[in-house]
């Protein structure tokens, strides 16, 4: 029972309240509802119902999440890791990343080059500076091939 209320809220009430603000993965909702002392059985039943009604969808969450991270200039490794941390199935992640590539929504090589160009306007002049740029792109979740492409692309702009 919540202080000041006459009855405790149901898992559905709490889930709807959370989903009204933003999308959540099933795993995130499970954790949040469990923290509010709802039983595991009640949570599972509630989330099954919400998914059947189309109110909660991991696929919809992943699609939105991937697009927002691309807009931020993040690479596939970081996007994948963040989604896994949020409890999304690897198959769903792989499908979503393949979909944005197939639809032409992202070219990871060009995104790495654009991300680097936004941060650094001049070509690198020292091995130390090159290493700094490599670390920058790696921390943004780009693969080695993407980093190499972006560095060569920036070096060719003089």
From TrEMBL:
Family: Belongs to the RecX family.
Sections of the chain in a coiled coil: none
RecX first three-helical domain residues: 12-50
KW Cytoplasm (keyword) present: yes
Pfam families, A to Z: RecX_HTH1, RecX_HTH2, RecX_HTH3
InterPro entries listed in its UniProt record: RecX_HTH_1st (IPR053926), RecX_HTH_2nd (IPR053924), RecX_HTH_3rd (IPR053925), Regulatory_RecX (IPR003783), WH-like_DNA-bd_sf (IPR036388)
Domain RecX third three-helical: 105-151
Main location: cytoplasm
Membrane-traversing stretches: none
Domain RecX second three-helical, chain residue ranges per copy: 57-97
PANTHER family xref list: REGULATORY PROTEIN RECX FAMILY PROTEIN
Function: Modulates RecA activity.
The encoding gene: recX
Keyword line: Cytoplasm
Organism domain of life: Bacteria
Gene source species: Billgrantia aerodenitrificans
Places the protein is found: Cytoplasm
Name of this protein: Regulatory protein RecX
